Amino acid sequence: MGRKIIITGGAGYIGSHCVKRLGELGYEILTIDNLSSGNRWAVLYGKLEVVDLADNSRIEQIVKDFRPDAVIHFAASIVVPESVQNPVKYYKNNTENTLNLLKILVENNVDKFIFSSTAAVYGIPESVPVGENSPLMPINPYGRSKMMSEMILRDFSSAYGLRYISLRYFNVAGADPEGKIGQAYKESTHLITRALKCAKGDFPHLEIYGTDYPTRDGTCIRDYIHVTDLVDAHIVALEWLFQGGESEVFNCGYGHGYSVKEVIEVAKKVTGIDFKVIETERRPGDPPELVADCSKIKSKLNWTPQYDDLEFIIKTAWDWERKISFPSSQ
C-alpha cells in the first residue's frame, strides 16, 4: 500500500494492536512512544522513536523527515482516579500535547488525523444507548482533557482544513487472537484484566464497586469492545480520510452492555477458577450504564465488528494473560 502513518502511543495496548494490523496491511509505520506505559517489544512493525510528545522540536523533526500521509494519535494518560488527583498531568499530556502535535502537523501540511477519544466525554449520560449528539458533560479531568482536544480538532478543521476522525471508545478489552500482543500493565484498572489477574493469583480478590445501581443486577453496565474490532474501526476511518471523507465523530462499541457481575461470571467460566470477589461501596462518578449507539459508524464507514462475544473477548485476554509472566517493561 505504501502509505506512511505515524502512530503516537503505538507501544501501548491499543496502539500496538493498530501497529500490527497496519503492518500486516502493508502500511509504512513510524511509532512515537515515550515508553512510560508502553513496551518496546509490542511494536511489531515499522520503526520506533522513543520520544515524549512534549519534545516539540524533536517531534517536528520526525514529522519533517518521515513526511506522514496521516497520523493516528493514541498517546494519552487514561486513569480516571489519577486524573482527579493530578489534573496537571492530564491537561498537559492529553490536551496540550495534542494541541502542539496538531500545530506541527498543520505547519507541515499533514492534513489527516485520527484521534483516540473516549466515552468519558459524555459523563453520566441522560439516556442510553449514547449517540454522538448526546451532550458532552465529562465529570473528571480525563474526560475533560479529551473533550478539549476534540474542540481543538473541530477548530483546526475549520481554520486549517485538517480532516479528522474522532473515535469515542467505550470499554476496550481482549487481546490479539493470534496471541502476539495484549494488555501489559502491571496495575491495570480494567475490570476484565483485573478479574483475570485474580484468577491467575496476582491479586487476592476482585472488588465490585457498588451493588445498588438501578440496573438489572445492581452493578454497573458497560459496553465491551474487542481491541481488534476497535483497531478495524481505525482502519476504515483511515480509508475514509484517504478517500476524501469529511471530518467526523464516531462511537466505538457494540451497542449492548454487560454488568460487572455478568463479566465476573463469564471470567470464572472461561478460566475455570472461582476467584474471590468482595462487594464494596460505589466509586464517585461511575455512571450506572454506559452503552454506545454505534449505528453511525456502521452505516457511514461500513464498519462490521467480528468479535462481539464476551466469552471470546475474555478468552483472548486469558490466553494472553497466561502467556506472559509479565514481560520486561521496556
TrEMBL record:
User: Which pathway does this polypeptide act in?
Assistant: Carbohydrate metabolism; galactose metabolism
Q: Does the keyword Isomerase apply?
A: yes
Q: Which SUPFAM superfamilies match?
A: NAD(P)-binding Rossmann-fold domains
Query: Cofactor(s) for this protein?
Result: NAD(+)
Which residue numbers delimit the NAD-dependent epimerase/dehydratase domain?
5-253
Cell cycle: is it a keyword of this entry? Answer: no
Would you tell me the protein name for this molecule?
UDP-glucose 4-epimerase
- Can you name the source organism? Thermodesulfovibrio aggregans
The upper taxonomy is: Bacteria, Pseudomonadati, Nitrospirota, Thermodesulfovibrionia, Thermodesulfovibrionales
